[in-house]
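Comment thread on ticket #2218

A.B. wrote:
> Attaching the input chain for the structure job we discussed in standup.
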Amino acid sequence: MKTILISQCLQHDFVRPIGKYDNLPNLLHVGYDESSRLMGNEANSGPLDLFMNWLNKTDEHQIIKVHVRDWHDAEDPAQKAHLNKFGSHCIQYTEGADFVFTADDQAHIINSVSLNDFVEPDLNTILAQYTDEPVRIGLIGVWTEAKIYFTAYDIATRYPDYTIAVCAALSASSSVHSHYAALNQLNRILNVQVFNSIGQFTHFLTWDKESISIELEHAETPIILSEKPIALGDTETKLLKYVFRNSKEISVNVLDGGFSGNSVIGTQSIDMHGHQESST
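C.D. wrote:
> Ran it. Output below, let me know if you need it in another format.
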């Protein structure tokens, strides 16, 4: 059994955080909404950072990591048409071409100059090594309707026995509508599994052995208060503390049972300055 994680174009020119009213840095940046969803609103605390911190703790015997990056040479005549159409982006050795995460030493870095990553043999060489055993392929990155879709199509047609999945929470597009439309097409046409949560996705990558856990930077805050005793498990406690990680304390109370049998909890939080925040 083998797992290969392929990330697509998780580079500054595509997904770096920008202000809500900032101009797009180039024609291919996914924009404020999608970059915020992927990267989070605070440094090193977004979904992508959470996942990459987990991924970098695994070794190549568990997950083979392949990071594809756009890597353009503005002086190369063969790339002129591509750069004319999509504008200047990810020029090699510039900050815009840098990954927005830290790749570990075991990762394979694939340089791409076109929409088709199979033009050069590097990616196919990695995939072709494991045709004699069950293989799971995980896809994340941008754009969902372009590089993610094209990669899934090539793998599905070249290696029909490989199981392919994409994580919706770790992929992005030029708009939320385009993102989810592409996910629907991936599932309906290419039979790609779509996981909405990072936990489900990591469960898939590890062949159902483990799921990503929430790592708390400051486990002592916020303080959780309740008027009546509430039985919160470790996962629920971590989730509450992660969601309200910028608060000093939260008061919780059980409102009712949900249709799934889970508890419905109301919260009232106090920020670090002692001000009451909106109830949820």
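A.B. wrote:
> Thanks. Noting for the ticket: The first strand starts at residue 2 and ends at 8.
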